[in-house]
Each structure stands twice: as C-alpha cells, then as structure tokens.
Amino acid sequence: MPDKQDLPVRVSPLLPSNGDFIVDYKNVRLSERKALTAIQVLSFNGKHADAAAAIAAALGIKCSTRPGIVNSDGKTQVCWNGPNSWLVVCSDAEAGRAPGELFKVLQDAMGELGATGDLGTTGDLVTTGNLGAVVDQSHGRCGLRLSGLHARRVMAKNTAIDLHPRAFGPGQCAMTSVAHMNATVIQVDDTPTYDLFVIRSLARSFAHAIEHACHEFESEQ
Amino acid sequence: MGQQFRTSSSGQIDRGRILSFTFDGKPYQGYEGDTLASALLANGVRLVGRSFKYHRPRGIQTAGSEEPNAIVELRTGPRKEPNTRATTIELFDGLVANSQNRWPSLSFDIMSINNLFSPLLSAGFYYKTFMWPPSFWTNVYEHVIRRAAGLGKASTEPDPDFYEQCHEHCDVLVVGAGPAGLSAALAAARAEARVILVDEHPRLGGSLNDENYSINGKAGSEWVDEIHAQLEEMDNVRVFTRTTLFGYYDHNVVAAIEKVSDHMPVPHQGHPRQRMWTFYPGRVVIATGATERPLVFGNNDMPGVMLASAARAYVNRYGVKPGRRAVIATNNNDAYRTAIDLHHAGINITAVVDSRIQPDAALVEELESLSIRLLTGSTVGSAEGHQQVSYVQIVTTQGDTLDPERIDCDLVACSGGWNPNVHLHSQSGAKPVYDDSILSFVPGKSRQSEVSVGAANGSFSLQDCLAQGVSAGTQAARQTGFKSRKMAVARADNEGDYAIEALWISPTPYNKNYKQFVDQQNDVKASDVVLASQEGFDSVELLKRYTTQGMATDQGKTSNVNALALLACQRGEPLPEVGITTFRPPYVPVAMGVFAGHTVGYDFMPVRRTAIHDWNTKQGAVFIEAGLWLRARYYPQQPGDTMNDCYIRETEATRNNVAIVDVTSLGKIDIQGPDAAEFLNRLYINNWLKLPVGKVRYGAMLREDGMVFDDGTTSRLEENHFFMTTTTANAASVLAHMEQYHQIEWPELDVVFCSVTEQWTGIAVAGPNSRKLLEQVIDIDISNEAFPFMSVGECMMNNIPARLFRISFSGELAYEINVPADYGEQAWLELLEADEELEVSVYGTEALGTMRIEKGHVAGSELDGRTTAQDLGLEGMANRAKHFIGKHNSERPLLVGEGRLQVVGLKSLEPERNLRIGAHLVDPSVKLETVSQSQGHVTATTYSPQLGCGIALGLLRDGASRHGEQIEAVFPLDDETLKVEVCHPVFIDPEGELVRA
Amino acid sequence: MHYSGFSLLKQALTGNRGWTRAWRNLEPRKRYDVVIIGGGGHGLATAYYLAKLHGITDVAVVEKGYIGGGNTGRNTTIVRSNYMLNPNAQFYEHSMKLWEGLSQDLNYNVMFSQRGVLNLIHNDAQRDAFARRGNALRLNGIDAVMHDLDGVRKLMPHLDFSKNTRFPVQGGLAQPRGGTARHDAVAWGYARAADRLGVEIFQKCEVTGIKRKGDQVISVETTRGPIEAGQVGVAVAGNSSRLFDMVGMKLPIESHVLQAFVTEGIKPLVNTVCTFGAGHFYISQSDKGGLVFGGDIDGWNTYAQRGNLPTFNHVVAGGVTMMPCLARLRVLRQWGGVMDMSMDGTPIIGKTPIDNLYLNGGWCYGGFKATPASGWVFAHTIANDKPHALNAEFTLERFREGNIIDEKGVGASPKSH
Amino acid sequence: MLRIDCPWCGVRNEDEFSYGGDATVERPTDYASQDDWYHYVYTRQNPAGPHREYWHHVNGCRAWLVVERDTVTHEIFSTAPASPNLPDPDGRTR
Ligand SMILES: Cc1cc2nc3c(=O)[nH]c(=O)nc-3n(C[C@H](O)[C@H](O)[C@H](O)COP(=O)(O)OP(=O)(O)OC[C@H]3O[C@@H](n4cnc5c(N)ncnc54)[C@H](O)[C@@H]3O)c2cc1C
Ligand SMILES: NC(=O)c1ccc[n+]([C@@H]2O[C@H](COP(=O)([O-])OP(=O)(O)OC[C@H]3O[C@@H](n4cnc5c(N)ncnc54)[C@H](O)[C@@H]3O)[C@@H](O)[C@H]2O)c1
Ligand SMILES: Cc1cc2nc3c(=O)[nH]c(=O)nc-3n(C[C@H](O)[C@H](O)[C@H](O)COP(=O)(O)O)c2cc1C
Ligand SMILES: [Zn+2]
Questions:
Q1: Which of B406, C171, C270, C353 is the 20 to 30 A CA-CA neighbour of B340?
Q2: Is the ipTM of this complex over 0.85?
Q3: Residue B327 contacts residue B321 (beta carbons within 8 Å)
C-alpha cells in the first residue's frame, strides 16, 4: 500500500450534491459521511464466534454475534452484517488510522492471509485467513447521516421497519429496504440520528429519495 | 342571498367563515365545516347528477362515503377528479364542481330519453343484440355504448400534486372514531399500548356528530372533544383524521389513505396531496359503524329521497334542512329519531309511514306528543314529481295498493334498516353471518387478529357501543402484552331500542310498473333482479355480474343487502342461503396516485451510475439503459454525428490504436475459502480446480434446466481466493444463485463470497497499443512473457492501487483494469492523458458490441434463456466427466439432437445494406411444413469497419453445419429481404493471435 | 330462444316476461360419455365444440361454484395472438379467428372488440426483441405493426411522452386485430350454446375424487354424487394440480395469484390495450368505462383469490409513470385469480399417462384469449383420443424430452413467466 | 402482505425477500436417473394448504430460509434457516 499522501483524492458518488448538508432544515438534516473505510468480514464454517472475538480483540470494540447489533467506540462502528458477516466502518481520519490500516488489522486478526501483490509468481499454497475473509467495500458504499427531530418520520416514508423507540434504538442496526433500495440502517443516538449505507451506484437516487421525504419539513422555523 | 335552507342555529359549521364555490358554473356560498353536499342542500340545490344508464335526475341520498348518486366532477384542469362524492368533499373557498354524464345540461339531458326505452335496456340486453353485421360491434355499436357509459371525464394532463407512502407500527389499531372506537382507543391507550386511531372524517366522533345523543350528561360532541383531548396528550397514541382504512390484507397488515390536502385549494409546499399508510398493528379493533339502507319503492331514486340518518346528519351536523316538508318512511325504530330531530329543526313532518302494524309504543307516543301523523302498516309506494319529489303515494303493505294516499312533501327520509360495516372484517378473510334480529350480516368468526365492536358488530345501542369499545380496547392491549387497568364505561343518557321488520320492496300504487331501484348508481331495478333470476343468473355472483348490481363506485354499500333479499324472495329461500358477494379492497375508491407513491416518472426506478458518469455527461456521451445502469453508448464528437459515425470511429480507434471503455456495470463477486475452487467447479460447466494462481478463465454456467445462464471470466487471485465477473444483466441473479446452492445444497463447502461490483471501477483498455499505453502507468511487468493472455495481477496504476486482467472482449490485445471506485474517474483521466502521442480515445457500448460481434463472442441476445452450451458453441468448454449444475437436463434428447437453433455468423451479400436485428432467416429453396418459414433469426448486427460490410450473429436451425450457405434475412414488418451468407461466427482473427500478441 | 334485436323488442313490449333460462337447471345423471371438469370458458367451450363439431352431446360440465367464476370471470379480457414461438403463434391465431365469428356462432354477444393491442418500447433491446417477435408473427400470417413515436401517440395520446421520465417511450409493437372481449359473456355464451346442443351444466358440483380402474378413469366423485364417465377432461385452470393429485400425479405446474384492478367508470380515455414496457403494467377500458389494469403475479404459490399490496403498488407506479393523468383516477376494486403457471409458460393440452383422462391447463395468465381454440383442440383431442396438429406440441412429455416452449426464456421458474 | 420472520432480522415485509419455490424437492444425487432430474426441475406437488418453501432474504441478511406457509390462508407456521452451517441467530456457531 502506498503512503497516505500518495493516494489520490477520493471522489464521492454524491459529488454534485455534497456540500456540507444535502438537507439542512431546522428539524431534520441529511449529510454525507465522506470517504469512509468499510471493511466486510465473512467468517468461515464454524469460525463465527472466533472471528467475532478476533475482531473485538483487534479493534478493542465489541463485535456482536447477535443480529442487529452495532458496537462503536464513537469512531469505528462494528456492525452485524448478516449471519456470518460484519461490516466495520470508520473514517480513517477521525479514527486516526492510516489508509489501508483497518483492512490490514482485520486481515491479521483473521489469521494467515496470502500475500497480496505478488500473484502468479509463486506456485505455493497460500491459505486465506483461517477465520474469515476480509473484503474491502470502502468505495462500494456511500454513507449518509440523517438526523433531527423528524428523522424518524422521514424514515417512515422510506422503510417498513419499526424504528419506534420501543422497537429500535441506538446500538441497533438493520439491513433492509429503504426507498426501495437495499440499505444498512444504524441508529447512532436518540436525536434520533441514523447512519444509512447504500451501494455507491445508487447513492444519488437514494439521497434524492430521502431528500424528497424531508421537504415537508422545510418551512418549519 | 342563498342558503335559504339553513337551520337557525344547529350544526358544527362555522357560520362566521363564509366560503364561496360554484356548481355547474353558478356561484353559491357555504360555511366552513360544510361538505359540498350540505352546502348544495343549504342553497336548495337538489338535482346534482344523472344516473348511469337511464340518465335519470339524481340528488343527494346520504351524508357519507356510501353515496351512490351525488357524484360530481371536482376541480378543473389537471386537478380535475371525476366521480367525486359530494358528501365527502369538504368545502373550501373557491371550490369548483360540475355535474357529469349529462348533455347539454343537467336539467335538460338528451340521453334521459333512455328512460323511455328502459324495457329494451333490461339487464344484459347487450348480450342479446348488436351481433350483426359482425364488424359493426367494434366499429359502430361499441362506440355508441362506450360514449354513453362511463360517468365523469378524466383530466388528460399530468397530476401536478404528489403522493407519498408511509409505514407505522402499533399494538392496537382502532378503525372508526365513533363512540365505540373512541372508547376502545382510550382503553388500549390507558394500558400503554401503542395505539393508532383512524377515522375518515375531519373530526372524531363518528355518528355522535350526526345525532342528538348525550353521554355522561354532556352533549355527545362535547364528550368526543374530551376524549380527543385525552388521546392527544398521550405519546403512545397517534390519531389520524381524514384517513380511511381501505384494505385489510394478509398477516394483519392494513392500509389507509390520508387526505392530507384535499380540503384545500392546493397542497402546502412540500406536502403531498394524499398519503398511503401501511399499518402493522398487533390487533385491530373495527369500529366502523353501520350504513343505513334505503327502501325500494317506485321512483325511489328521485332527488328529495334521502336516507333517514342522512337527513338527521344534515340537520344536526351541518345545520341544513334537507327539505321543508318531509315524509319519513321506515320499517324500523331508528327513523323516528329523524322525525323528531327534523321536527325540532323546524321541518314540517307531514307523516311518518311505518310498514309495521305495531310500532314501538313509546315512539308512537312521542310522535303523538309532537302531533306528528303516523301511518302504520303502510309505506311509500312511489315518489312523484318533476326532477324532484313533490308528493308520495302511500300504499299499505298488505297488498291493498289500489287506492294510494297522496301526501305532499319535498323530502322523503327513508330507512330500510342498518347494515353493519363488515367490509374490513370480511376483507381480513372472515365470513360475515346473517343475523335475523337486525336482518343483516354481522361479523363472523375472526380469521386474523381483529374484532368488530359497536354498530359494526351489529350492536346498535349507544350504551353497548361504549361498553364494547372499552372491553375490546382493554382486551386488545392485553393481547398485545400490556397490563390493562379497568376503565369505566361512559353512560349513554338517551337512546331507544332497535327493532325492525322486513320490508324488502314496496307494493306499487295501482300495481303499475314503476322503476324501483335497488342499485341507484348503476340503475339496477328490482325488475332486473327478477329477470336475471328468471334467466338462470340466480346465484349472487351471477346476479351481480349480469345486472351490475353492486359494481358501481359505491360498490353497493347501500344496495347489496336489498338486492340479495330480493333474490332470496325470487328463489323462495331464506337470505342466508343466498349468501353475499365478496367484499374487496378498497373500502372506498382510492386514487391511483396513492398506490404509486412518489416512485413515478423519473423516480420510477433508481438510477445506477458509474464513477465515470459525470465525465461521460460532460463529454456529451449518449447513454443507454442496462437494467438500472446508465452506460455510455457512444460519444458524438461534433454536431451531426450519428450513432453509426461514432461507433465506427470508436471501433477503428480501438482496432488501430488504443481506446478505453467503462465496464463497471459487470457483476463482480469476491469468493474465498478452502472450497472456493470446488464451488466454482460445480457452478460452471468447465474446470476450475487446476487453474493456476494469477490466471483468468472464461466460464459458462447453466441453469438447472440445462440452458445457459451466464458467462464471464473468473480469476484466481490466490489459491483460495477467486474473483468472478458476471454479465451486467445477471449480476444479482448469479449472486443469489450462488447463495442458494451454497446455503441449501452444499453447505459443507467452506467458502464465503460477496458482491464487490460497487467497490471497483472497471475499465477495459483495448487495441494494439494498449500495452504501450499501460506500460506508462502500471508498475508491474506486463510484457507478453511476464503477463500473457489470461493473466491477472495486482499493481499500482500511478498512485492508484489496481488489479489488472489481461482479457479481451474486443478480440484485440486488451486489458481490463479495476480500481477502487472513488479513484475511478482519476484512473480514467490518467489513462486518457498518459501518453499524448498515442491519442487514447474512448468507446461506448455500441462499439463494444461491434467488436464482440466481429469476434463472435456470444452475449445477452444469444444467451436468451433458450440456448444450450452446444447451441452457442460453448460445449467444448464443458467437462461432462464432472458434475455441474444443469448437466443432466442439458442432455435431454431434444436439446442435443438436430433441429436446434445454433449460433452462426451472417454476412450481408448486398454491399450497401446491413442486416437488422430481429430479422428472420429463411431459406427460399426449402419449403417448411409449418406456416412459418422461419429457420432462425438475427440476434446482433453491426457494420464491421474491419470487414467493410454488414455482419451479424444469428441463431439458425442446425447452423453450425451450414456455413457457406446463402439464405435470406427477412424483415416482413418493413417488407424487407436481404441476401446473406452463413458463416463462422468469429469474423476476425479466428486463431486469436491478436489477443495473445 | 334466439337472441336478436327483434326478440329484445318483442320481450320489451311484453314486460320481459318471456325470457327463458340461458341454460337448464338439471340434476346430474348417472353416466355421461364425457365429463368435463371445470365450468370456465375452456370447459364450456370444450363441451360446445364436442357437441357441435364432433356430435358428442352426452356431455356434462361440472363446476364447483358458478360458471365463469374462476379465471374466466376475473381476467383482464385481453385477446391477442402475438406470440413469438411457432406452436403458440399458430394456436393463438386459430383462437383469434374463432373469436372473430364467436358472437354470431354462439348467438351471444361476447363484445369482442378489436381495438388493438399495443406493447410499448422503451429501449433498443426491446425494439430488437419486438422486431423479432413482429417478424415471427408476420411469417406466421399474423398481423403486427411496428410503430414509431407518432404512431404510438395516435393510439395512446395521453402517455408521458416527455423525456423527463425514467424510461421514455420510443415506439411500440401493435397487433391491430387484438383487443378485448366481455369475459363473463364468454362463459355464458358458451354455456347457453352448449346447453342448446344438449350439454348438461352443473353448478355447485365440485369434483372431490377421480376413480380409476387399472390405467383407466371410470368416474368422478362430486359433491352432487358420483358420475360415471367414458372420458374425463380436466379444465380447472389454477386447480389442475389438485385434480391430478386425485390420481396421484404431480404436474409441471404451480398455482400463483395474478391480480387485476378496475377504476371508477369514466368516459372513453384509453382506446386500445396498452402495455408498459418498462414495468409491469397493462391497461384497457371496459365498455362500462372502468379502466381495467393488471401487472405481474405476486410471485409465490397460493390458492387464495386475493392479492397483496407490494405488487399492487408496483403495478400502479408503472401505470402512473406510463400515463400520469391516471394519478387522480380512483381504483374501485382489487381482486385476484389463481393461475396454473406452467414450467415454461406455455399451456399443456392433451392426453395424460392415464387412459381417458385429458388435461387442459398451464394457462398462466394468457388463457382467456385461448378460450375458443382451447375448447376446439381439446374437443378434438377427446373426440379422437389424439391431439390436433395445433396442440400436438403442448404435451406433458415435452418437459422430459426437452421441447421447451418458453416465450420469455426464463426457464423452469413459474413465478417468472 | 406477507410478513416473514427472518430468524436473524426479525419480521420483515415480503418485498424484502425473493421466493425460491418448493423446499420439499430434493436435488438428486449426481448419479440419479434422468427421470429424477426431470421431476426435480419440473414437477411440483403444489399443495393447497401447508407448503414448505424457500425464501431468500435478498434485501436483508441474504440468508435462504425455509418457510412453512399455508397456500390458502397464507398463515406462516415456521421459518428456519435453510443452511445448517450458518451461525445461528443467537450468535452461536453451528
Ligand atoms: C387477473 C387475471 C388476468 C388475466 N388476464 C388475461 C388476459 O388479459 N388475457 C388472457 O388471455 N388471459 C388472461 N388471464 C388468464 C385467463 O383468465 C385464464 O387462463 C383463463 O380464463 C382460464 O380459463 P379456464 O376455463 O381454463 O379456467 P377458469 O375460468 O378458472 O375455469 C376453471 C373452473 O374450474 C372450476 N373447478 C376447479 N376445481 C374444480 C373441481 N374440483 N370441481 C369442479 N370444478 C372445479 C373452477 O371453479 C373454475 O370455474 C388472466 C387471469 C387472471 C387471474
Ligand atoms: N339505533 C339504531 O338504529 C342505530 C343503528 C346504527 C347505529 N346507531 C348508533 O350509531 C352509533 C354507532 O357507533 P359506532 O362507534 O359503532 O360507529 P359510528 O358510526 O359512530 O362511527 C364509525 C366511524 O367510523 C368511520 N369509518 C367507517 N369506516 C371507516 C374506514 N374504513 N376507515 C376510517 N374510518 C371509517 C366512520 O366515518 C365513522 O366516523 C351508536 O351511537 C349507535 O347507537 C344506531
Ligand atoms: C374486466 C373486468 C371488469 C370489471 N369491472 C368491474 C366494475 O366495473 N365494478 C366492479 O365492482 N367490479 C368490476 N370487476 C370485478 C368484479 O367485481 C370481481 O371483483 C371479479 O370478477 C372477481 O370476483 P370476486 O371479487 O367476486 O372474487 C371487473 C372485473 C373484470 C374482470
Ligand atoms: Zn434476514
């Protein structure tokens, strides 16, 4: 991996609309969480608990084997992402990590992993990590943050899952359909604030749909 | 001026807020709180519409959403809404409404001539005639019928408003905010359940707004306000007014429409016109009340004939006198209240006519005390008048109808009894049952988590409604896990008992032929029911379909039970034997916009964009849809450039030099694990176990039925780490297919995989100078020796981490480079700018297609789900010694034998003419036995700059063995025929020297 | 009683008291030469053609509910013969020809309205596919016209022709002879005509068992008693699997629900049948004025004649996108029909491994238009104990052999056809 | 609206899932007869009543599920993971 300063600037999929806020009303705001690192970890057969433990040990953040749970140290989110999968998300800058570092940490945590970068040169048997596979999705996901008094009402226009405080709260996450698109929803705090992750190619349509759902609150003072 | 029919004081209208509106162009005034119907009545407007078939004058029948007659065109221009019930339109300032289905005017309607021909226009008459000459049906008769039928006119302009869809969950959902619903909601809410209360009216209270009841010593409406205030204070309750629950679906999911802005001239900025709510309640309490049914007598459709409860509602709720002199006709106790309330409002009650011989003694006494005349054992035989009632003829119910008494009146308020609103209960899958004591259907055994209470449950006493509400609310909370506290039931201060005796149809005066309407909107008469039954359409469902009873915009809310009862009489069977027709959503008609929500127009489907999208846009690229993706199709360079100009230029630039194309949309799947190779081996028809690390292989997979499913290249990045690409179209289905087989069939395989389509921007670099170009930016040795055809490696492209593949779709020396998507545009620019001398250019999917045809690579149009590997010339890749998906079924006799359509190349034999996709292949020298002479078709065509002629791929019967034949490509849609030569599908570089160079 | 303008007039003058039953109300006898199970359009048409063309009049049609109460009574009434693959094209075109004289043949106005069927095109791939189909049709002697945008505008003036829509319209493939027919009237017309030729029709008569002797069917059990039969033809649409379960056979069929919807009646707005090519939506206007529309199946096995919300919403979103002025028109009713989705989307009409037992099923959502031809070839098959050339390929065996007739190319996936 | 209780994600609307058909058909062994393969791909019991079927939680956790559902009433009796090898919803490794 090249040094941090060597890498080009990351271009957000939301470029034309990503000023500081996509929506900035008194009681609801939508913004992009830019240039995130998102690493997917998938555990191999029978290695689920060990993989979770290894992730937790490597990051110092709990890693849940139970569905719908996200743990965070305030900077890095370790998010349940399917029966045998987690998504670890952070902004490298905020978390104080070098680019590529998180991937490496997780890869190490998963155990032996074949060297990358020298493909085809050796005929040696290299095993992939013995606990799980680590896949970089940083550029494949767009992160958005929806926050404010009306955030739940905006979500109610776009998703069928129950986000009522009695049913969903900070520390919980869900993979579901939002505005008819696949998304991961994480509740960050009681404001409420939600982090939403959607695949890169759909980012603009997705942001547009959420923005549309906010319009009702535009005129509130 | 105007409003001469207002009462002096009653009603929930705001007499201080005067609203102006027009009906049929004429200006009127009403008050805030009015409906269009009440405002029209206040102004003495009786005639508001024409009926469907006979164009008879029609007035206002009801005061609610069950209205069959008073339907108007509301608003104008793009906001015009035909068939809107005047009884549910909240009046707003500037409202414009027009009558419909009449010409030239409402009071003088030419088509009312139909009325005279009604014996000819009996039920089902159109099935019996208009058959000759045959061509006249579509061309003549149908035109006339279509024009005559239908009601209002639609706007043809796009709707300027928008709609939205929301979801909400709760423990207890209460439908209807009358005494029963309010009690239920409060009880459940007190137990701390999450409660939703919906009511279609702007104000809570249900029938309490229409009636003179008092509860706990207060006026009913005061009690309502108190409960409403309590509910509003609790944060576990959401109250939705102007919201009609219209559908009860599976798994206790219900849907409602909220009329957010219909009571305003235009919606507020940012607000939808209407909203669809999908509710997910634990339990539903149905407190939807009951609907009164009319009596069936001669001319019972005339303006001035109204439901007794509606007359009450107009007086009590809207402060309107629906007439000055009223006859009340009934077969039950309830309408007596109409007589009393109307009397107190200053309306002259000329008579109460009760079909029963012995009405309730207390009621008789009460009428006496008010000096209201009561006729028993009698009923209205007919209403008479010109365009509105001026008198009725009273007949006795004993059949002695010869000498009817004539009573003057301008209002007939009638009650044939009450039907509980069992619609939602029935939609939930339950079967309503007949209750002889109220002569109607009541809820049966619940099939989902719902319960009906109050009038909806057939309990017509206010005290019962209040009590049932409390108990249902309490129970619902308990059933959804909440500890309930005891709640006192409110006390109903005044009400009478309900009692009814059957009167399904009145005798007619002088036994004359009268039109006695059952279904008023669809002009179905009692005689139509008789005729249908006589002709054998004597089950309820056949009756409905033959006569159209219950099929109008009101779905027979007021007519169904009467029709069934008449059919039962006709069949000589009890009513429950006859049964009822099916209740279906929506409970009230719902605008299509509501169901569509805001995913319409440009937002119908989301758009998938690649990282190169903005650059492409700036370049003026013309895009093409590939599923949800937008891909650059070609790049016009100057004004007037056609697609042909572009793709030929782009192809030539590629073949002669080097060019790049965005291939991001291909599916990409990362596969890891000790059993990854074995997994691939089962998915693909070819071998994977021995593929060396650092190598790429082209593979094909079949569906289990043996047809080719998808193709693409897969690379071995490490021993246990593969990277698969799929076609753009099948990216999602291939992933799902892999998950299916891994999770269901082969869970023992230790492999994990996920889509990485989005992580990478894919750029193909093709052309003889592609290596030269890449050498400038890539940090690894890509000489032919170090990086031969079908190699893969990780590298840096300048400062961008990348994966490089040496694969070729174009048939040229080519590479594909993948970079993390946020660097995609940068990589693209760097490739374009890497070498000024080289003049790197770009190409789009059209040139991509040209080159793949020249190279004979099969793609989507050949992989059409009907072709086998053999048909496509891919059988050579298959290893039939191993097991793979689809192997067995691909060996079925007719899939391997002769006569299959197989891939061929085709060359135009006429220099100036190109083949066209979709043309069929015909061999003029062979005459087939079938009608069609088609032996196959053209799947992909292009002009080949390389060959200087039009070429194509096609699927031709036994094509693999027919190279060299001259046949025809025909395009009968345009009367075209083209001579073509069948050839090998690979047009250029069949040995593959270029790609290996 | 013969129907005509004259009889209508005569009856009108005499109080409409002389109209007789359209079909008789009888009690089932002990035995019939042929028992047809299913009183939908197909069963009734089969009985009619057995009597009319093959002289077999000792026929009973047994219907568990009321006639036409199955899919015949709940379909969106579209009649067309624009199928791409030869066996389908020729079969459906035969049907089209029968439709063209049906009202007169039956002496019952089935309101067959040849107002045309238009399939919209939104992209080049679609245009190519439609070109292939249109040319195939023409080669089969079937009418087909490729329209450009102006042509489409003439037929459907109120579509969204702006560019500000996700998938702008580019053209359309039309079959001018296609159109609609009054669905219920088809069942009633065949019933009446068959009855006049001696066929006996029994409603509320559900088949609950099929009795065999060796490899041969000998009788059916019904809720109105057992009935012996020389031959048994099954035409029960969505219930084919249930009937064949009675003889221990599994079919290449799944039952799925297709929904349909109708709006409030309005004056003529849509004058042809039109399908949206960028979503699942198609529409026509009934003679009464309701816009009748539908879309895709709900996509999972069911025997319930009702649909659910997701499909409903999706269908309507397509409709409003295609034709924005629909937004303010109101849906009046939503219902569903249970269809037998075959494994290749093509019907199965023919003999079965069991002697004297014949199957007419697998209609998916296309069987209404097939009604006349379906009855016609099924009658032929039963009368001759061998298929007609027109249904020779619609066998059960084709799946085993690999002669798949798959218009969509989606494979053995009933939910996708 | 079907509401399917994904063992991992909880109750979700049907539009998050895609239908996978009859779960009682068993994929024949590689050495099975052509007849078995024909039945596997083409014939179905298609019952009116309880039906074991596959659903894929494609807009959620991407697990394949076996759902027991009544094809007449649409009532769902049970939902279970199709794979015996995925870690179970309580987070235990299988
Ligand atoms: C919503 C919808 C829209 C459609 N749109 C179109 C369209 O536009 N164009 C088109 O061509 N096709 C369409 N179809 C398909 C078409 O309706 C059917 O294919 C066709 O009507 C089938 O006719 P049938 O006579 O075979 O079946 P049906 O009309 O269903 O008749 C079968 C009869 O068998 C009876 N039955 C079942 N079991 C038994 C038993 N055990 N004993 C006795 N009787 C039994 C049933 O009660 C039923 O009446 C549509 C279908 C639906 C549901
Ligand atoms: N004595 C009689 O003959 C008689 C007969 C019928 C009713 N009643 C009286 O009527 C009252 C009945 O009380 P109740 O609470 O049962 O009913 P209600 O009629 O007072 O209230 C029902 C409410 O539900 C609403 N509603 C109906 N369907 C709806 C839907 N689908 N979506 C949203 N809202 C819907 C109605 O608009 C109404 O506001 C009692 O006072 C009873 O005494 C008397
Ligand atoms: C072409 C067609 C047009 C229809 N038009 C109407 C209509 O105008 N009004 C109506 O209430 N129902 C209409 N229906 C629906 C029927 O009322 C009924 O819902 C359908 O036949 C299914 O029967 P079921 O709801 O009794 O199960 C129509 C149905 C079809 C097939
Ligand atoms: Zn899940």
A1: B406
A2: yes
A3: no
| CB C325, CB C309: distance < 8 Å | no
Q: With an 8 Å Cβ cutoff, is A45 touching chain B?
A: yes
Chain D, 13 to 72: residues with Cβ < 8 Å from chain B are: 18, 20, 27-28, 30, 32, 34, 37-38, 40-41, 54, 56, 58, 62-64
pLDDT tens column, B273-303:
999 999 999 999 999 999 999 999 999 999 9
Q: How far is the CA of B275 from the centre of ligand 4 (A)?
A: 29
Confidence (pTM): 0.97
Ligand 3 neighbour C292 (Cβ under 6 A): yes
In a domain, D30, yes or no: no
Q: Do D44 and C252 touch (CB under 8 A)?
A: yes
Distance CA C174, CA C117 (A): 5
Task: Return the ligand number nearest the Cα of B204.
Answer: 2
Number of domains in chain A: 2
- Nearest-CA residue for atom 38 of ligand 2: B206
Q: Residues B171-186: pLDDT tens digits?
A: 999 999 999 999 999 9
Ligand number with the minimum distance to the CA of A161 = 4
Residue where the block lists tokens 């939301």: A14
Query: Which of residues A5 and B189 earns the better pLDDT score?
Result: B189
- Within a domain: D87: no
CATH number of B898-997: 2.40.30.110
- Between A65, A82, A177, which is nearest D16 by CB? A177
Q: State whether A130 and A46 are in the same domain.
A: yes
Instruction: Return the domain boundaries, chain C.
Output: 29-108+183-253+344-416, 117-178+254-342
The predicted-structure confidence for C283-340, as pLDDT tens digits, reads as follows 999 999 999 999 999 999 999 999 999 999 999 999 999 999 999 999 999 999 999 9
What number does CATH give the domain B291-419? 3.50.50.60
Q: Is A84 on the interface with D (CB under 8 A)?
A: yes
**Residue B2: pLDDT above 90?**
no
For the stretch B799-842, pLDDT in tens is 999 999 999 999 999 999 999 999 999 999 999 999 889 999 99
How far apart (Å, rounded) are the C-alpha atoms in residues B91 and B97?
Answer: 11
Nearest residue on chain A to D1, alpha-carbon basis? A160
The answer to whether B752 contacts chain A (CB < 8 Å) is yes
Instruction: Give the closest of A128, A204, A209 to B718, CB-based.
Output: A128
- Tell me the two tokens of residue A41: 């970890």
Residues 3-32 of A with CB under 8 A from D: none
Cα–ligand 3 centroid distance for C74 (angstroms): 6
Q: What are B52-63's pLDDT values in tens digits?
A: 899 999 999 999
Give the pLDDT confidence score for residue B116 in this predicted structure.
87
Q: What is the 3-state secondary structure (H, E, C) of chain A?
A: CCCHHHCCCCCCCCHHHCCCCCEECCCCEEEEECCEEEEEEEECCCCHHHHHHHHHHHHCCCCCCCCCEEEECCCEEEEECCCCEEEEEEEHHHHCCCCCHHHHHHHHHCCCCCCCCCCCCCCCCCCCCCCEEEEECCCCEEEEEEECCCHHHHHHCCCCCCCCCCCCCCCEEEEEEECCEEEEEEEEECCCEEEEEEEHHHHHHHHHHHHHHHHHHCCCC
Q: CB–CB of C123/C172 below 8 Å? A: no
What's the token pair of residue A148?
A: 């404010």
- In whole angstroms, give the CA distance from residue B713 to residue C100: 53
Nearest-Cα distance to chain C for B592, in Å, is 5
Tens digits of residue pLDDT in B15-50: 999 999 999 999 999 999 999 999 999 999 999 999
- Residue range B201-217, pLDDT digits in tens: 999 999 999 999 999 99
Q: How many helices (H) and strands (E) does chain D have?
A: 1, 6
- Selecting from B278, B705, B743 the residue whose C-beta is nearest the C-beta of D64 gives B743
Query: Does any CB of chain D come closer than 8 Å to the CB of residue C312?
Result: no
Domain with A165, as residue range(s), is 141-217
